[in-house]
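ligand=pyridoxal-5'-phosphate
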Amino acid sequence: MKEREIPYKIYLEENEMPTKWYNVRADMKNKPAPLLNPATLEPMTAKELGVVFCDELVAQELNETDAYIDIPTEIRDFYKMYRPSPLVRAYCLEKKLDTPAKIYYKFEGNNTSGSHKLNSAIAQAYYAKQQGLKGVTTETGAGQWGTALSMACSYFDLDCKVYMVKVSYEQKPFRREVMRTYGASVTPSPSMTTEVGKKILSDHPGTGGSLGCAISEAVEVATKTEGYRYVLGSVLNQVLLHQSVIGLEAKAALDKYGIEPDVIIGCAGGGSNLGGLISPFMGEKLRGEKDYQFIAVEPASCPSFTRGKYAYDFCDTGMVCPLAKMYTLGSGFIPSPNHAGGLRYHGMSSTLSQLYDDGLMEARSVEQTSVFEAAEQFARVEGILPAPESSHAIRVTLDEALKCKETGEEKTIVFGLTGTGYFDMVAYEKFHNGEMVDYVPTDADLAQGFAGLPKVQ
Ligand SMILES: *Cc1c(COP(=O)(O)O)cnc(C)c1O
């Protein structure tokens, strides 16, 4: 096909959208390690998980045999309001970089929550409603997940209680108000509304909170309130499953024009967008049909893949959640307060951790000023103001495209543009004022987090 016959934006028709999610675990020889009960160190049973999560989501969490799982019609109808999302050929960026590389990005920022998180929020809210629940609880850091979940809950008329990391609650009032617009109640965490919150506050008075604290509070409220369950926006297998809609659509769009990517790049916080984007391609690699280079990009200030340990760890600070085997910096690790670019969770999806440990994907860490440089370069030519998280993937895409310029290779690169950055302008402001600093934890800093790892084989 002649180059220019590929449009700037490749859209699928509504009837070309996926009707099933793809579960990459079905094709993995080495399955991700199971969640463990922190008291007995035995794998969590469906019954035990059912105290915290909705039944159908527990089934998805534990399902490592079915490669395809139907997307219920109600969820597909909601998806149709903002999907299929475009796969964009970054012609302008290529021209600006003067690279022979061909760059595509899958843009997930075209909905009010501004990120891919809505893909799983709507699924989780649907299953909660199906089970006849009254509501759900969750945590949110900067607020993207809380925003997505509050939209999903209002659609299905469910109550939504969000524990928001206190510093963000105070510094990011706009996201908080979007959540309240959609009817969610938002509590700054740690709070006096939970036992674990009270304990954290008495141990660390004046703390600004962390995602790990907020998770503990949200789980406590869910398990103690009749008709409520807890939902999580990343890390879990079920979330990667829902996010596979990104990769399935991207693959269908590429296939439509006979395009074969060489490199697939995504940012990694808890791993949900990256896992979702690469899943169908990884499936081909696992089945020996094709080969691709996959690159996870994380902040140098929170380097779970590149400097973490592959070990069982707590998912939260209060240690109320099951243990997960993952690349982790330890549940006590808190990134530098100067870190502005998101992706600050201490652990990583156990599915991606296993794939990484098996050498099936790579990881790179990047410093935040270089991330914002890349964000700005991208915004100026492609017209979209990217989220700082997404800009980690942009950074490595630029690096790869510039390498192609040196070698003359015409690689095809696909990256995940997970969202827009309009609520992150304080971080952009710091960058423009030259006040942004790079912080890379020392080995001694990391050793403190590792010291808190539970002693599990
Ligand atoms: C939450 C978020 C991420 C990181 O989460 P993952 O689970 O690793 O995908 C990336 N980009 C945006 C815009 C986000 O909101």
